[in-house]
TrEMBL record:
Molecular functions (GO terms): heme binding; iron ion binding; monooxygenase activity; oxidoreductase activity, acting on paired donors, with incorporation or reduction of molecular oxygen
Domain of life: Eukaryota
Ranges annotated as spanning the membrane: none
Name by which UniProt lists this protein: Flavonoid 3'-monooxygenase
Pfam assignment, any one: p450
Cofactor(s) in the UniProt record: heme
Family, per entry: Belongs to the cytochrome P450 family.
Keywords: Heme, Iron, Metal-binding, Monooxygenase, Oxidoreductase
Species this protein is from: Mucuna pruriens (Velvet bean)
PANTHER family cross-referenced by the UniProt entry: CYTOCHROME P450 98A9 (PTHR47944), FLAVONOID 3'-MONOOXYGENASE (PTHR47944:SF18)
Length: 148
């Protein structure tokens, strides 16, 4: 066997072992029930041409709160008004932050800017400063020539 084929086989085997170990040791989250996802595309084939009809059909099977994997992204779907109200009114502080973004960590100096900062006291302070100084009536009048 040529050295090139051996190198590629070794690299492929190492990647396979790494992925297998990562899959086995990942922490299991307490997620709601949902359909079993396919290996790479997740639950995208379950969506169909009209996604809201497909979600309603899945909700009849799995309940009003379900877990879907869309590609490599985990999504929790609230398929009834009462469950959506629980998300948006009762538990709003738990779900108000953005999911972590690997690129934003480096672009925004470890999530220190307003756009990528997680919800909390620092984000509220940055938003207050922005609202008071950048979007005040006086500031908007001063930047009118830039907007036109």
């Amino acid at each position: 066997m040529s050295p090139l084929v051996t190198a590629f086989a070794t690299i492929a085997a190492a990647i396979l072992v790494y992925r297998l170990i990562k899959f086995i040791t990942r922490p299991s989250l307490p997620l709601p029930p949902g359909p079993k996802p396919w290996p790479i595309v997740g639950n995208l084939p379950h969506m169909g041409p009209v996604p809201h009809h497909s979600l309603a059909a899945l909700a009849r099977i799995h309940g009003p709160l379900m877990h879907l994997r869309l590609g490599f992204v985990d999504v929790v779907v609230a398929a009834s008004a009462s469950v959506a109200e629980q998300f948006l009114k009762v538990h709003d502080a738990n779900f108000s932050s953005r999911p972590p973004n690997a690129g934003a960590k480096y672009i925004a100096y470890n999530y220190q800017d307003l756009v990528f900062a997680p919800y909390g006291p620092r984000w509220r302070l940055l938003r207050k400063i922005t609202a008071v100084h950048l979007f005040s009536g006086k500031a908007l009048d001063e930047f009118r020539h830039l907007r036109q």
